[in-house]
Every structure is written in structure tokens, then in C-alpha cells.
Amino acid sequence: MCTNSSKVEVSNSTFKYNKAHIHGGSIACVDSSNIVIKECLISHSEAHTGGGIYIFKSHPQISKNTIHSNMAAEVGGGLHADYANFLLSNSEFYLNSAQYGSAIEMSYCYADMDSLLVHNNTAESGAILMGYTTANLLNSTVRFNTATVETGE
Predict the structure, then answer these.
(1) pTM surpassing 0.90?
(2) CA dihedral in degrees (67, 31, 85, 144; nearest 10)?
(3) How many Å apart are CA 92 and CA 65, to the nearest integer?
(4) pLDDT-based confidence at residue 33 (cuts at 50, 70, 90)
(5) If exposure means fewest CB atoms within 10 Å of the residue's CB, which of 70, 104, 105, 108 is most exposed?
């Protein structure tokens, strides 16, 4: 976890089979922290929010990652963000699950997302779910996701 204006770089690392009671099964970045997460595998982790990654009031750069088979009991199976300004690129999200936003869920965020592959994720509502968010999604593929109650993508 990085907190209180921390500056952290994580690269070429594997995060598997982690569990958090509340936020961020593998990685949690909160309170004005800047983190770079690149070329990592984040899988088989779970939390109430942000099964793989949890971001709150921070400014991460997330690129060239594989984020799969994570689970959130509520929101953001792969990644959950609140009040964040971040870049997300060249990453793959698959086999993640959550009640809302199986791959990615964000609220009150500004996000630039480029070259994402989002597939085979399952939630009650949406693979990518955004509320009160401004986002740019470019050069990405979102396919074969399942929403059991609302839209699939």
C-alpha cells in the first residue's frame, strides 16, 4: 500500500492470491500518492472493493499489465478508483468479477485509457462502469463480457 503522497514504482512483478478485508486485494494507492505500475501480473486476489487494485485520491500510471481472475464483493473486480486522475494503457483485463464493474469501476475520476483489452469479465452491471467520471477510451477492445442484470459493456 502507498499512502500520504508516496511515490512508488512497481515493475515486472507478480501479485497473486492476495486478500484484503476492505480495499485493494493486491495493491492499494491512497491519499495523493503517485504510483507507476507497469509490466505486472495481478491475479487471483480479492477484496470488498478493488479486487486487484484500489485507488483513492491518487494519480497512478498503470501500463502493460495483465489483470485477471480477481474478485470484488462489491465494485471493481480488476480495478476500483475514486477521486483519481490516472492513466491506464496497454493492459488486459479478463476473468475478473464483481457486483458492479467487473473489470474496471470508477467514480469521480478523470481517466485516460488507451489500448486496453477487456474480455470475459462478469458482473451484475458492466465490465467498465463509470459514475461522475470523465474518461477517454481509445484504441481498445471490450468484448465477451457478461452482465447478469444490466449492460455487458
Answers:
(1) yes
(2) 20
(3) 6
(4) confident
(5) 108
Q: Which residue has the cell 487471483?
A: 44
- From the list 149, 67, 64, 56, the residue with the least C-alpha distance to 103 is 67
Beta bridge partners of 54: 28, 80
- Distance CA(138)–CA(90), nearest Å, equals 11
- Amino acid at residue number 118: V
What is the CA 142 to chain-centroid distance, rounded?
Answer: 14
Q: In whole angstroms, what is the distance from residue 20 CA to residue 136 CA?
A: 30
Measured distance CA(82)–CA(57) in Å, rounded: 6
Residue 126 has pLDDT above 60, yes or no: yes
